[in-house]
Amino acid sequence: MIRIEMNRVGGDYGFEARDANGHVITTDTSPESGGMNFGVRPMQMLLMALGGCSGIDVVMILKKQRQEITGFKMDISGEREAGKEPSLWKQVHVIFELQGNIDSAKADRACQLSMEKYCSVAETLRRAGAEITWEVRVTA
Question: Where residue 119 falls among pLDDT bands split at 50, 70, 90?
Answer without folding.
Answer: very high
